[in-house]
Amino acid sequence: MTLANKKILLGICGGIAAYKSADLVRKLKEQGADVRVVMSQSAKEFITPLTLQALSGYPVAESLLDPTAEAAMGHIELARWADLVIIAPATANFIARLRAGMADELITTLCVATESSIAICPAMNQQMYQYPATKENIAVLAQRGHQMWGPDSGSQACGEIGPGRMLEPLDIVARAQDFLAGDEQKPLKGKKLMLTAGPTREAIDPVRYISNHSSGKMGFALAEAAVKLGAEVTLVSGPVNLPTPTSVTRIDVISAEDMLQRVLNDIESQDIFIGCAAVADYKIEQIAKEKIKKNDENMQLALTRNPDILATVAKRNNKPFTVGFAAETNNLVEYARSKLERKNLDMIAANDVSVAGQGFNADDNALHVFWSEGSQHLPTTNKKALAKQLLLLIAERMNK
Ligand code: C5P
Fold first, then answer.
1. How far is the CA of 281 from the centre of ligand 1 (A)?
2. Is the peptide bond before 89 cis (omega within 30 degrees of 0)?
3. Separation of CA 173 from chain center
4. In order along the chain (400 residues), what is the average pLDDT of each group of 10 residues?
5. 158 part of the active site
6. Does any ligand 1 atom lie closer than 6 A to the CB of residue 325?
7. Is the CB of 308 under 6 A from ligand 1?
8. Whole-structure pTM over 0.90, yes or no?
9. What is the position in ligand 1's atom list of the atom closest to the CA of 280?
10. Which domains does the chain have, with CATH numbers?
């Protein structure tokens, strides 16, 4: 009963996935949650309030100006009652209205009036999901700190295939359990964590650059896991093709110099810094102003060292708990330990990139983690699970 004593307000919008919301009420209640349901006017075209009343055990709140409800549990009380508001399904129309702060019916008013967290489970046709305004609305709501759970990709009720399926009820329950987990499961609560991720690009001329194959997956997995463990996360990312994890402040940069500047701008207030980016070691000494012509058979590029972002952070007085990564192909233990000392780090996570399917661009990884008095091996698993293990280790060590 992982949701025992949790009060969940479930808002249902008018989409075909609303039929799954009945099952969601049951699954939430099975975990001990107290569930009250609010329906938009159009939701009632898809599923009856009676069904939801029977499953939740409460009358369904439907209208904003309902004299009987206002006398008992009116919209402000309902907004205050909830530990968590889940909107499932959340239609494109609802998402647009919430982004604009509209309070035009009960379901939107509750979201505007509540101090509780709001989890939005989008469900719509894939074209509607990919419409620029919808994407922008979702990004803005996520940036405001609302939880964005899903959507899934796959076959849709309209016969099309693509992103826009509502998460399955069991997945939504799992997200709610994760989100409402007690403070003992949020060891980074109140901590500010900054991390770098992805590659950097070092310009040669206006159209060319030097870079590397870093996908950013490990850094993005760390950012997502850190939010779940309660941290306030700033992710300074080089050019990658990954969506921003919910509730993460993302700063996009191109070159190592950009990355250093953006890190230093906000490092003062950070409790933890993780250098996960594959920063280019060298940059072009003199970036050509015009596109370089291929006039010669051979050409040479003069390179100069980039600043070491991690070492710069670790040199500061009052430095945050500073963690580096090391990708090695041999002598892993020796190189990692010497890097720990040389860069003045609190911890270093080393991975053996000579092992196939691990490290750069892969979904799985294994890490050897070292600190001055000890070490721990985190065996091969997916980067998301590994991210959580590494962060738990950081939380444990920084309190020693
Ligand atoms: O020295 P090496 O490149 O192996 O160190 C890797 C670690 O240092 C990583 O954590 C990486 O993010 C960080 N780094 C950095 N700035 C650089 C080079 C590496 O922050 N210019």
1. 8
2. yes
3. 18
4. 91 96 97 96 95 95 71 77 96 97 93 94 94 96 90 83 92 91 83 98 98 94 93 97 89 98 97 97 97 93 97 96 93 94 97 73 86 94 91 93
5. yes
6. yes
7. yes
8. no
9. 21
10. 7-180 (3.40.50.1950), 185-398 (3.40.50.10300)
